[in-house]
Fold this protein.
Amino acid sequence: MPEISENELTANAKPLWLKALTAVQVSNHSYAVTLLQGILNDNPGFLEARKLLRKCELQLTGGAKKKSGLFGIQTGGMGLMKPQNQAKKDPLGALPLLEKELEKDPLNEAANELLFDICVKLEFLNTAAFALETVRSSNPENAKLLKKLAAFYSSRNMHELAGEVYNDIIRHHPTDGEAIKGAKDASARASMQKQRWDENASMRDLMRDTSQFEELEKSSRTGLTREQLEDRRDKTIEKYNANPNHLATVKELAGIYEQLEDWHNAHNFYQWAFSLSTGDVALESKASAMKDKAIEADLRALESAVAADPDNAELRTALEERRRDRLTEQVQEAKRRVDQNPTDPQLRYELGNALYQSGDLSAAIPHLQQATRNPHIRTKVLLLLGRTFKGKAMFDLSIKQLSDALADLHAMDGTKKEVLYEKGLIHEEMGDKKSALDCFKQIYEVDYGYRDVARRVESSYA
């Protein structure tokens, strides 16, 4: 049984799919979950339904993974025994059982790994990737499962994606030799793959199965040269002009503009695609992201103009006004997203960050406090909360937030260094030089070149 698209849904499932999309639009996530699980029971290869199901579940659970319980077993782990046993004799029959467990904890790593293993057996390869990508987005420090995902991509000759996963591992585990080697190998294979494609004027002549070619082509678009992308854009524009309401063409054109980093056009076409779709939240999110990139690009262009002509008072004034407007826009957009999904800790963090950047520290605090509920962003939330209290000269509360953040950090990675450095600066402002030096020394012991810690530590001995 292959993976299917929306057009290939069974006749009974299509009206249920439309009902599920409508339920999501009105934020009736519980009802949407029930509908989507029913659709997947009869159409287990319909990946879009599984993706939407997971988003609804995350809304209902607040986007947080359940904490480990007794003996370090993740909550819900015992509930996996039944789908695990079922998967050995009937992988397809195990999927509904597994989805019931994921409904309770959609970020459960053991459950998502089991989903991956089952989908590989069923040859639902894109669904298998989605299962481990869920882990990658929620807990990028899980090197074991990320290596499994990278190896999976490599086995499918998707070397560029494999390299990205290995690089994620390295960001959190800089000394992981296996990941370092994997990243180098993936980069080399991706380069060789791109070179082979460039040497062939037409891959279609070498591929008997057109659908196989299109899948390969889609997965490797990021390897196209700018000239090839522009050629593809021009051909897609012709298709668009022939039928501006064809959703697939509009999405393709939006994706091409995104790869060309033409953010304004990418935003316009993703927004149009969202209008044509039945409330596709992924397209809405894409349109919003492209709008942000377009605004940032305009701001950088203005900054470059000021750098090139620093004596131009008119340009400097325009830049200052644009920066103020940008901060206001970010706060307004973040508030809009929170109003739509008030239980999402990630959106609360984004609003708190926007308010912090705009200087409204008091308004930022309650949103950041709510964002600490998500364990996957808790550390960076506490860091920002510490800086917010510092900005209000509430140093004791700031130290408390940073100490809580350090309690969750074990490896001396970039995040822990940043938290220690910030804590050291606050101790200095409080006149506690001993505690400040202790923070700087912890960094100095593992990273001599980090910021100015060497000067701070060595001057204390002088």
Remarks:
- The chain has a mean pLDDT of 84.
- Residues 302 and 318 are 8 Å apart (CA to CA).
- The first helix runs from residue 13 to 25.
- The chain has 23 helices and no strands.
